[in-house]
Specification:
15 helices; alpha/beta; Peroxisomal Thiolase, Chain A, domain 1; two-stranded antiparallel sheet; globular
């Protein structure tokens, strides 16, 4: 296999968002301008921000997207489940539904966070193994008289679910892909990172096809509280680049793309949605200027020219929106961006961590192909010139069809930045 210069194309999309499963549900929700945010219940409702966007998918419907006899839900966190649901939608879209065949030259990369399960059964087991010392008002001591009951309550599956490699491992089992598998962790950019490295695996000859993207569920009290400490959550409305923006809101979801080597895709008569024209990732090490690293990431992905469509973070966060806008303006120029259209899924389905970048790229690609018409909203950015540039792009439409360029990017709070450029093509 030739290495380094192999063409890579996108032949299918897999989506799970609060709008539903499949890219069609995302396209319909964005086009209708609907919001998926609702108040959170129970303990989650007591932790800021108190609202979010959840996917209503009963457990009994999982079998529509993956074989629950093979992928045991007891070994899956919510983000792993979302990834497998989106993957099932992608495989249907690609006409590649699993039939027991294994594929040594195909692999799976997925970006996610480590958010451990609540370990409820382990907590109950520990309660059975402890008691208050006789005659004491406080404190506990271990008491193995309850060991038999505790062992029945404890579950080893909780620890399996918490292993960091489980998301991509489940995708590999689901698809029968025996090629490279990796779960990228630790930042909101890891979903976009997974796609960048998946393209690299195909270009270098390591694989002929890769499923890659991100999946995440932020709805655990510890995660919501952590992001609140970081200053991410707003007051209930997500308004990207607007003068009165206050922050973002959480949402769960997954976004996956099916990348294939061009000749392999043509050989199976696959429907080609776009060709990858560039991909990059950069890390802002301590002491480096964050905007400069973001600019370099964008330029390295697209090369020369200006994108027709951009899939932006659009978090509605004061400082992060400003940094993102400054990076785009410095990379391409305010005048050149005057004909570019921007798309973000965050104002309608929330920040889904590592899944957000892939979802935004999918949304921008659908718009560039003419398969979706995202609702456009005029935004007042006030006196911030850079934000005004992206605010204008959010209220604009651009050219569609073959030859249209799409640039998706994710800039994380952790200094990890990744971007990918696509060109719409049917050949």
């Amino acid at each position: 296999m030739a290495g380094g210069d192999r063409r890579v194309v996108v032949t299918a999309l897999g989506v799970a968002s609060a709008f539903g499963v499949g890219w069609q549900s995302l396209a319909e929700g964005l086009s209708a301008g609907r919001s998926a945010f609702a108040p959170l219940e129970g303990l989650l409702g007591e932790v800021p921000p108190g609202s979010g966007a959840l996917l209503d998918l009963p457990r009994k419907q999982y079998k529509e997207w993956f074989d629950t006899r093979v992928l045991r839900t007891s070994t899956m966190t919510r983000q792993t489940t979302l990834g497998c649901v989106a993957c099932g939608a992608l495989l249907k879209d690609a006409g590649q539904e699993p039939d027991g065949t294994v594929h040594p030259a195909k692999g799976a990369y997925l970006g996610s966070f480590i958010v451990p399960p609540p370990f409820k059964k382990q907590f109950i087991a520990m309660q059975l193994l402890s008691r208050r010392p006789d005659g004491e008002a406080t404190g506990h001591v271990l008491d193995d008289s309850g060991l038999a009951k505790a062992m029945k309550k404890a579950s080893a599956f909780d620890f399996l679910r918490a292993l960091p490699n489980m998301p991509s491992s489940h995708l590999s089992i689901q698809t029968g892909f025996q090629g490279p598998a990796c779960t990228y962790l630790g930042s909101d950019a890891s979903g976009m990172q997974a796609m960048v490295f998946a393209v690299g695996a195909i270009r270098s000859g390591i694989a002929d096809a890769m499923v890659a993207g991100g999946a995440f569920c932020p709805f655990q009290a510890v995660h919501l509280a952590w992001q609140q400490e970081r200053g991410l959550w707003g007051d209930g409305t997500v308004a990207p680049y607007a003068a009165g923006r206050t922050g973002t809101l959480p949402g769960e979801g997954a976004g996956l793309l099916y990348f294939e080597e061009y000749e392999s895709a043509k050989a199976r008569s696959a429907t080609i949605l776009a060709e990858v024209v560039g991909a990059s990732q950069r890390i802002a090490t301590p002491g480096t200027e964050d905007v400069d690293v973001r600019v370099d990431t964008l330029r390295a992905a697209l090369g020369t020219g200006t994108p027709d469509w951009i899939g932006v973070d659009g978090l509605g966060h004061g400082d992060l929106d400003r940094l993102e806008a400054e990076a785009y303006v410095e990379a391409f120029g305010a005048d050149a961006l005057g004909s570019t259209a921007a798309v973000s899924t965050v104002p309608q389905v929330g920040l889904a961590g590592p899944a957000t970048g892939p979802l935004n790229l999918v949304a921008a690609l659908l718009a560039a192909r003419g398969d979706s018409t995202p609702a456009r909203t005029a935004v007042d950015a006030g006196s911030d010139a850079a934000c005004a540039t992206l605010a204008g792009a959010m209220g604009r439409t651009a050219t569609t069809g073959d030859g249209t360029t799409v640039l998706g990017s994710t800039f994380s709070l952790d200094g990890v930045h990744a971007a990918m450029a696509l060109k719409v093509t049917s050949a």
